Fold these 4 entries.
Entry 1:
Amino acid sequence: MAHTHATRIREFITGRHPQAELTDTQDIFSLGFINSLFAMELVMFIEKEFTVSLPNDELRIDNFRTIAAMSELVERRLAATASAA
């Protein structure tokens, strides 16, 4: 399931940056694909796409540095939502 999350996140990023050929572990900030506006769009995309809420303590750059980190963030938030239900 996490692979599906990673694929959808990668597709969102490459939709904005078609030249990007990203692996799950590349630092998208150091590659220059993320600015502050796109970072907020990424947060909103993740919340809407995966129906998760991202509390302020999860809005750390390390959670968004790689596709793998974002996928893990989605998994954590989905697990937290499931356990709260």
Entry 2:
Amino acid sequence: MKQQISRLSPHQNGKVFGVMMAVTSLVFLVPFALLFALVQPAGKSGPSLLLLLLAPLMYLVFAYCAVAIGCLIYNFLQKFVGGIEFETSTDLDAR
């Protein structure tokens, strides 16, 4: 059965995606910060703790805003061009 998504929740989707991006940024940020701390030139300081705390927060805020704006645009445009279409089936249909 074909269905269309008629509305995306800007706040909920932005919240979920923002937290997901913040957590994902830690997966990359922590190893790179440790690597840079190991290979830094003598006398230079490594990445600051402020950067390690601020980067995931910035990812969260920017991802939330981008997804919320994207959802608002989708909600406006779907009235004119239709929503994202997908097809569903039950286990009985798959046999």
Entry 3:
Amino acid sequence: MSASTLVPVVAPASNVRAPRRRTPPTPWLRYVVAVAAATTLILLAIPAMSGVPWTTIGATLGAVPATGLSVLVLVWAVGLLAHTITLTAALPGLSRRRALTLSLTGSAVSNVLPLGGAAGVALNYRMARTWGYDRNQFAAYTVVTNVWDILAKLALPILALPLLVLTAPAAVTQLLGPVAVATVLLALVAALVLATFLSPKAAHVVGTVAERLATAVLRGCGSQRQVHLHQHMTDLQSGCSRLVRKSWRQLSLGMALYTGTLLLLLWGCLQLTGAGLSPTAVVAGFAIERLLTMPGLTPGGAGVVEVGLSSALLLLGGLPAGVVAGVLLYRALTFGLEIPVGGLGLLAWWWTRRHLTAPAVAETGLATTPAGPA
């Protein structure tokens, strides 16, 4: 055998395929971690923090009468209807039914998917487009409704602080100083947020600072990407300002009624489970709960809100079993119930859209082909 026959044959370089680089499933990994953390907090931290076993919590929940539970569901539904006042004000021409569909489907998607907030906004955008709204109208709607929601959550501690000063038990008196400082900071943040969307000068300053900070972060990460936050901020401010100046009363009325029904719902849940809390303590706990829903560390704040709210109410003198059961019942209504109801709303929208557009396509005489995922 000659030496030449021992030389391996190498395929031309053009035929060699480089291995495909797969993008790591970072959003799903974060989602799994967040869900695991929420589950751990609920299953392990709540009994450890309250000193109440799950058997006792379950027995307390099982003792809630069906009539009382029906009333709570009714209050929950009234709150959602009240919220449509704000939504219809932020998107002129939107019907109450469609506003309710946007609210429930967006919440359902946000509560179950990784990066659920962005997914919920994307779904609502697609719905709004099918109803004839353009990108600018939906952008103003999204910003204004979220800003009003944030303002409501930031305003609650300001209202709750005097109640804490007057009624707080000795166990929380030492916390009033930090709470007062936090309340002042929240008031400043709320004023800044509102000024940004009412004043072109404030939007110019905030947009400039945000663009410089974002550019510095990108350069520090080795990226040369250009950002134009200043222009986006000023354009958005112009559209939002017109909307706010025209509809601020309706926006505020809807948000106030919605927030009030949520407070009533929490009080009702705690009453039915025998938490033994005064109305002022419930108001203080509710203010904390609203703040805990803002960071979005887990889907819908699951785990974080239950543990944080239970801890606050126990510190305010609530009975452990009643407090934990009441908090879980409240979250089952405001977080859990929105998922199946919102899912049904999404299914109804999809079915209606499909059956309304099919005849229109058939009338054109065009052959239809599968469009694939949108």
Entry 4:
Amino acid sequence: MVPSAEFDECPLSDLSLWGRVGTFVHHEEQERRFHAGLDPITGEPAPYAGMFG
């Protein structure tokens, strides 16, 4: 027998496992932010931007 539980949503479906709220950012906007030295998800300045490229 497989145990089952009732969840409002899949507990593994978002970034809450890592303490981050999932937001949708289009992949082109993520790439633009990355090349601008910003965090692709939050849009905040990335502390390690440009160090490895």
